[in-house]
Design a protein that fits this description.
six-stranded antiparallel beta sheet; binds FE2/S2 (inorganic) cluster; oxidoreductase activity; flavoprotein; PyrK_electron_transfer; Dihydroorotate_DH_ele_sf; seven-stranded mixed beta sheet; electron transport
Length: 239
Amino acid sequence: MKILANNCIAKDTYEMILDAQEIKKIKAGQFMHLKSGREDLILRRPISIASYNEKELNLVYKVIGEGTKTMARFKPGEEVDALGPLGNGFDLLDVEEVLIVGGGMGVAPLYPLGKELTQKKIEVTFVLGFKTAEMAYYIEKFQALGEVIVTTDDGSLGIFGNVGTVVDELGTFDAIYACGPWPLLYGLQVKFDGHPHLYVSLEERMACGIGACYACDTKDKKHRICTEGPVFNIKEVEL
Ligand code: FES
């Protein structure tokens, strides 16, 4: 796919915009599987789709290893070997009040979800957690959709602490959608124990991305995250 832009949007965080004119259908919560561009790095990297329209696809990724470091050097006009959109994505429920909780890189796939829910006139509260202010991204985009509560681990932006501190103070919602590190998801599972509509998008290392290698099994070994996920009702999986 042709790269239209590849910019640093926060500390170690990049947004790559791809020409998406050939992609027919995209669903919030799906991901793209990208080759880094370095011949010796064979495995693709699963990257969240952070927004899309009929022309462009925005991906947000964190530079953490050699592969993503190489990806960060892509220039507009170059091509990236991309597979996708992959995975099942979020199902939109016909409800009134929704809570969306994201942490770190897990914030990115929740933006298109929030956009689609608010377009359906569903009231959405966003709780977004980052390590520090310099690692925060997309805050203004979320604020254009609804109420946004930001937390940072060091208190440099928003509320000091993690998202759990905030979520514990909130009431209940018709549905909860979340993506982020394991402690965040586990905290939600405890807080909303037995809730019928708590959906989590799981982050996992992948190899094939298309259900063939079983490298991305859930902890209970019952599901492949790349194909049956990454979004699950929390009742279906063991965290
Ligand atoms: Fe191969 Fe999921 S990455 S089955």
